[in-house]
């Protein structure tokens, strides 16, 4: 089918995994004939070498994207040159125009244009740099000085002009769409209803019936339950292999046993009934899957060789959630199918990314400590920065209650009264208060300020005569409100005795 079209520069893994799966059209034919684009495919395979299930899709997508760009370049220039021939400064502006065209720019004027597919422009920019780097490496190896110079100048143009002409437009379009889109989180009642529905079906599942329909139903129920319970990414759950399942943590470790003394009866029960499976996360690190007790029998059913054979799973399929081919049942599709069985108010809001956003938003309402937030991020498989920027939505309750407290404190000049307190410990009644009570407190404070000891009046006057130094080292601080307590006669006598050298009708002199 593709005999004679695969260039020798393509690696064996590219020829085996990627090229046979690509759709046969003009773009694929262009890809198969171009050396630089084939080497780009090898780069993407190497970048995702540890992601065996999806690496071929990444490589195929970026190769076809580069092939589409090359087709547009040939149409614009009326030339049949290769990608290597176009990677010179002369055609830089042509690359800009074809990239915007590939993203379906709405206007011809690029300064005011919006892009239908802005993320495509960002991907093309990175791939252009990769292909130019490949050409630069080939030129250095072959001693092609002119090719090296042209490619170096092209990369310099990418640094100087690509950001303004392409990247800025793409990012502006993305930011505008993200700002204007209405972000609705799932209805908590829908989540509870769906979880109850899945659990009831798992408890009623017939483990003795072994046929393709029952096996697929088991896959859908197990994937949906684990996805909803763990808020995992679908790709991470789909990639769960039989080998990882066999290595699951079933027994309580010695450390966990030593901590059981401080646990409640319910916590001890959950520790004994739940199992932990570790899978490969998005960034390559281990992420946990917590398996509640109702899903454990179904997982054993899916791993049973007899049920797999009678369920139509091929012997060489390494995945736990296998389909009848060599792949898996997608977790997102499993969740969509199970949503149709339950009576939900807003089923369209329940999908994997939105469930993760819901978890991140609820976490800020609860007010997790720093170490608890770190635990949550480790479970979800991302950093705290990604957690805050991409997943956590603004909570209306926090804005309307907690932030409103802070705004009211500023408006009513009550900040000093609540210094050192947490917002959750401050009540609106304490901020607003009673106007009559506030007036009485103010008058009482003024009377207290007048009750100063007359014997120390000269000392106070002397201190007041000291010039005030202002500079960058000193910052204005808000005085903390204190309750004044009048000194006793014994304390005043002790103070006079201690400071008798400095108390007088004039400023004390400086002694050597």
Report on this structure.
A hairpin with a 5-residue loop joins strand 1 and strand 2. The protein has a two-stranded antiparallel sheet with strand order 1-2. It has 4 domains: 12-179, no CATH class; 188-252 and 261-350, Topoisomerase I, Chain A, domain 3 (Alpha-Beta Complex), CATH 3.90.15; 397-433, no CATH class; 439-498, no CATH class. The chain has helices at 12-18, 26-32, 35-47, 55-77, 83-86, 92-102, 118-142, 145-180, 188-203, 212-230, 234-238, 242-246, 254-259, 265-273, 296-303, 305-310, 331-341, 352-366, 370-380, 384-391, 396-411, 428-432, 435-450, 457-464, 489-498, and strands at residues 275-280, 286-291. The chain is an all-alpha fold and 512 residues long. Helix content is 59%, strand content 2%. Helix 7 packs antiparallel against helix 8 (145-180), helix 10 (212-230) packs across helix 15 (296-303) and helix 18 crosses helix 20 (384-391). The chain is extended, with a radius of gyration of 35 Å. Keywords: DNA recombination.
């Amino acid at each position: 089918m593709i005999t004679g079209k695969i260039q020798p520069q393509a690696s064996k893994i590219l020829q085996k995994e990627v090229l046979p799966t690509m759709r046969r059209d003009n773009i694929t034919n262009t890809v198969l004939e171009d050396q630089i684009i084939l080497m780009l495919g090898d780069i993407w395979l190497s970048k995702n070498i540890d992601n065996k299930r999806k690496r071929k899709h990444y490589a195929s997508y970026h190769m076809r994207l580069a092939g589409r760009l090359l087709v547009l370049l040939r149409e614009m220039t009326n030339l049949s040159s290769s990608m290597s021939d176009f990677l010179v400064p002369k055609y830089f502006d042509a690359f800009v125009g074809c990239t915007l065209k590939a993203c379906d720019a709405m206007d011809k004027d690029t300064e005011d244009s919006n892009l239908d597919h802005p993320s495509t422009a960002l991907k093309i920019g990175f791939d252009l740099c990769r292909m130019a780097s490949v050409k630069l490496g080939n030129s250095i190896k072959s001693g092609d000085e002119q090719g090296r110079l042209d490619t170096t100048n092209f990369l310099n143009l990418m640094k100087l002009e690509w950001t303004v002409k392409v990247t800025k437009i793409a990012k502006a379009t993305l930011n505008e769409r993200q700002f204007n889109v209405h972000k609705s989180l799932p209805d908590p009642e829908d989540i509870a209803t769906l979880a109850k529905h899945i659990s009831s079906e798992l408890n009623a599942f017939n483990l003795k019936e072994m046929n393709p329909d029952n096996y697929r139903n088991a896959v859908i129920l197990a994937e949906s339950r684990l996805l909803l319970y763990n808020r995992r990414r679908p790709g991470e759950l789909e990639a769960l292999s039989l080998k990882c399942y066999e290595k699951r943590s079933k027994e309580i470790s010695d450390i966990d046993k030593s901590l059981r003394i401080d646990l409640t009866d319910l916590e001890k029960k959950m520790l004994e009934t739940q199992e932990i499976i570790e899978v490969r996360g998005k960034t390559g690190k281990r992420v946990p899957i917590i398996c509640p007790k109702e899903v454990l029998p179904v997982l054993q059913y899916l791993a049973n060789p007899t049920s797999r054979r009678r369920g139509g799973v091929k012997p060489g399929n390494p995945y736990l959630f296998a389909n009848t081919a060599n792949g898996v049942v997608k977790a997102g599709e499993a969740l969509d199918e199970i949503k149709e069985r339950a009576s939900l108010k807003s089923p369209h809001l329940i999908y994997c990314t939105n469930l993760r956003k819901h978890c991140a938003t609820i976490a800020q309402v609860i007010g997790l400590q720093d170490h608890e937030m770190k635990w949550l991020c480790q479970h979800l498989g991302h950093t705290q920065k990604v957690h805050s920027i991409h997943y956590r939505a603004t909570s209306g309750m926090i804005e309307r209650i907690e932030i409103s407290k802070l705004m009211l404190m500023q408006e009513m000049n009550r900040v000093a009264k609540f210094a050192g307190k947490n917002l959750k410990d401050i009540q609106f009644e304490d901020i607003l208060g009673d106007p009559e009570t506030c007036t009485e407190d103010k008058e009482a404070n003024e009377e207290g300020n007048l009750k100063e000891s007359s014997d120390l009046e000269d000392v106070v006057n002397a201190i007041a005569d000291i010039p005030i130094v202002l500079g960058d080292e000193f910052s204005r601080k808000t005085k903390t409100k204190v309750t004044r307590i009048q000194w006793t006669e014994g304390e005043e006598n002790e103070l006079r005795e201690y400071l008798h050298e400095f108390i007088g009708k004039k400023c004390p002199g400086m002694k050597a």
